[in-house]
Amino acid sequence: MGRKNFIIRLRSWEYWPFGIVYIPIFFYWVWLSIRARSLFFFSASNPGIENGGMLGESKIKILDKLDDELKPVTFLVRTGEGLSSISKKLQKANLDYPIIAKPDIGERGWMVEKIVDEANLSDYLQRSKVDFLIQEYIDLPVEAGVFYYRFPGQSQGKVSSIVLKEMLHVRGDGHSTLKDLILKNDRAKLQMEVLSEVYDMSEVLEKGQHLQLVDIGNHCKGTKFLNGNHLINDKMHLAFDKISNGVQGFYYGRYDLRCASTDDMYQGKVKIMELNGAGAEPAHIYQPGFSILTAYKVLFQHWKTLFKISRANHRLGIPYLSLREGWKEYQKVRNYNKTKATA
After folding, report:
1. Fewest beta carbons less than 10 Å away: which of 60, 179, 333, 338?
2. Contact between residue 169 and residue 159 where contact means Cβ atoms under 8 Å apart
3. Measured between alpha carbons, how far is 68 from 155 in angstroms, rounded to an integer?
């Protein structure tokens, strides 16, 4: 029933492998590296973030730079730490289930999970081979990614991208099974293997019944990314100027956040789950049907801005990673990814 997964992915570039989509960007990075005389020029973009936020940066170290009212309660769990120790930390932090668990160094939704009870946490602990974060679950209706940049020496910056996230869901018709509803939905169909482990596929939803299938707003888990750039105005710029000026050494990246409403976003009343640096993307480009040529234009513009900010910081005395240092950091990330592969 429905199109084959291969055809779904082939016809929608948002599903293409990262390495394929980024081929033109790779050549542009080489060109910018030649101009900067450094392959690792991006490391100067955000002096307050390890390697600018491109190679193996710690999420908890970045979150520690944010004011407490802007972020969920979060703490680090070291590899090998036992369940009893984590339970004590939860109690001390006054955190109740559900909670979010995610690797301290990770990307694209890898092992980001909603943990509903102690048994669930124990299972996650057994599967995890790396340090991870426990984070308060923020149950607010608006989830977004806000891309912001500011040039060194300036107090005002710019919000250049807003992506709004629509969680994967289906709606019942009163007679189709959950399996049938998923198979009719291309986005859900790609997640069938995972969803079949969680849900009773023979269940019949009532007509009009809405069922949210995932709780994590990652594209790789089926979340639909929507272009929210119509929300960008002077109020949005000012709100994120205020937030960003309080984050030492941050000039370029994306806030992943939740809030009660877009009005609250304009006022800076948000909860920031993550702040991503130089490696972040203006994720509104992944809206279904968004032109890949327009997406490349947006990506090239952001890489050019990354280059200019990095150069400006370098002129102010922020060093680029040397070739030796950069290679060492790359090897660390590579070894970390090998560890991930065993998880």
Report:
1. 338
2. no
3. 22
Query: Of 250, 274, 243, 246, nearest to 44 (Cα)?
Result: 250
Q: Angle, to 10 degrees, between the axis of helix 23-36 and the axis of helix 292-315?
A: 20
CB 105 within 8 A of CB 336: yes
| pLDDT > 70 in the chain, percent | 98
**Closest by Cα among 102, 341, 59, 318 to 218:** 102
Q: What is the DSSP string of 18-80?
A: HHHHTHHHHHHHHHHHHHHT-TTGGGGS-TTSGGGGSSS--HHHHHTTS-GGGS--EEEE-TT
Interatomic CA distance for residues 272 and 70, integer angstroms:
6
Model confidence over 109-159: pLDDT tens digits? 778 999 999 999 999 999 988 899 999 999 999 999 999 999 999 989 999
* pLDDT tens-digit series, residues 57-69: 899 999 999 999 9
Angle at 257 between CA 48 and CA 334, to 5 degrees: 55
pTM of the model: 0.93
State residue 332's pLDDT score: 85
